[in-house]
Structures are given as structure tokens and as C-alpha cells.
Amino acid sequence: MVTLADYKSDDIPAWCPGCGDFPILSAVKNALVGLGKRPHEVLMVSGIGQAAKLPHYLKCNTFNGLHGRAIPPAIAAKIANHDLTVMVVGGDGDGYAEGGNHFVHVMRRNPDMTYLVHNNQIYGLTKGQTSPTSDAGFVTKTTPYGNIASPENPLLIAIACNCSFVARGFAGDAKHLTSLIKEAIAHKGFSLIDILQPCVTFNRVNTFSWYEKRVYKVEEEGDYDPYDRLAAFKKAQEWGDRIPIGIIYKEERPVYEEQIPALFKGCLIKQKVDPLTFQSLLEEFK
Fold first, then answer.
1. What CATH number should be reported for the domain holding residue 60?
2. What pLDDT digit, counting tens, does each position of 55-109 carry?
3. How many Å from the N-terminal Cα to the C-terminal Cα in the chain?
4. How many of the other CB atoms lie within 10 Å of CB of 29?
5. Domain residue limits at 177
6. CB-CB contact of 144 with 50 (8 Å)
7. How many structural domains is the chain composed of?
8. CA 44 to CA 208: how far, in whole Å?
9. Pairing label, strands 85-91, 42-46
10. 147: CB partners within 8 A, 6+ apart
11. C-alpha distances in angstroms, 117 versus 2, 82, 191?
């Protein structure tokens, strides 16, 4: 039987007291335990940033990559070992700016993995610059007169790219977030959870209390259908006085690793490799 103690790391989190990353870490642990996933069955991949530190505080397989480059090694790991539960973790800067290109194309391919993006609308690790999701007019050290760029809407981008599972969570509701993570992992295909994660140090606008007055669960609207793509587009555009959380869009379609001919015989780690297979290729270079 898997318990929370199985995922306990000896590392002490280097996050600010009250950071929204703490409840996200708790939700991840509870989701994995709730699904009966054992630590050796899980791979957490991250890039650079405060959010990307999360795998350090879990006792499981971990790969820490470059800024914005967490998705490629995660895909490679899933191709090599289909049995792994692969999760990618990053922030809004890491995922939507530096990693924006990978974010778009991984949704096209639809590998079976889960992407958790801690969206605090600011760069926390580098001390408070605007991120792609910062609201227009947002004042920071680098935008003292207010942010003049329009904010990116990751949910709209994901739905437009036909991402097979698009959800939004809130760090202030760890129980609801846990259920979303469990559903995302259970979903066969690429799952995105954009998590509203207040930064208590550098973002004094989008705080826990600010979100608590605005977020609502889409599943509490009895007539909302996440399989309705047009309805999902409309729902994803809600921001301001009302902010939806929950599963915004969902679709069942073939996963990437099941369509690669070289993997029809099974994942790579289970295939026997004959070194002499490459001999004919090497002969060409003589």
C-alpha cells in the first residue's frame, strides 16, 4: 500500500512562506497516493524556476532540465518506458515563454503525460519580472509604468491546439486540485493543468483572497459539457469577476507513443537490441 511517507523527501523546500507551491506539492502527493502510484513508477520532469523545484521535494524519479525545455526529455522518457507515469512541472515563464514552442507541439502529438503549470503571472525565481500571463498594466521592476503587452491565455491556446485534456486548478483549493491531478493522470493523452498559484512575494495583486472571490467550479454548472469545444472556447475566455476552474475541455484521441511503428512491439526498454543490426550501416563508412 502506498502512503504519503513513501514520497517524503529529505530536502527542505526553498519557497517563501505562504507560497502557492506548497499546496500544489501536497496535491501532487495526495493524487499519486490516491491512484496507488508507487514512487519508482513516477517520473517528474522540470525545467528552471521556483515551480521547477517541486520534483526536488518528492521521493521519485526526477529529471531536471533546462529553462523551458522540460517537455522534450519527458516525451523521450515516455517513449522509452510506456509504463512510467510521466509528469512535467514548470511555471508560466518556463512553460509559456521559454517553453512556448514545445508547449504548442506536444499538444499536437498527444503523448500520455501530465503537465502542471504553476501560473502566478510573474517570474518568481528572477525576482519579479512580468511573465506571458501578467495582466496589462501590471507594475513590476521592469515595467514601472505598467505592462503594455496583452496577457497570454494558455487555456485558449491549448483548446485551439486540440489538447486532449485542458483544466485549470487553484492552489487555494488543494482538495479540488488533487481531484484534477488524479483525473489528468488517469486520462490517456496529454493533460494540461494551468494552476492559479499566488506568489506572495512579487505579486500583490493576484493574491489568494483575490482568487477566492472570483473562482468557481465548472462542474457545479450542471449543463456544462467539457467535450463541447465551442463551449470550452467561451469558458476559457472568462477572466476578471468570474474565473472558472475544473476541466475546461476534454477529447479522446490516439496517443503519440502508440502510433510510432518502432514501438508497435512494445516500449524500448522491453525490446531486445542486437548490436550487430547496425553493422551494415557502419560498413558504409569504411
1. 3.40.50.970
2. 999 999 999 999 999 999 999 999 999 999 999 999 999 999 999 999 999 999 9
3. 56
4. 22
5. 4-283
6. no
7. 1
8. 26
9. parallel
10. 130, 134, 135, 136, 137, 138, 139, 140
11. 25, 23, 11
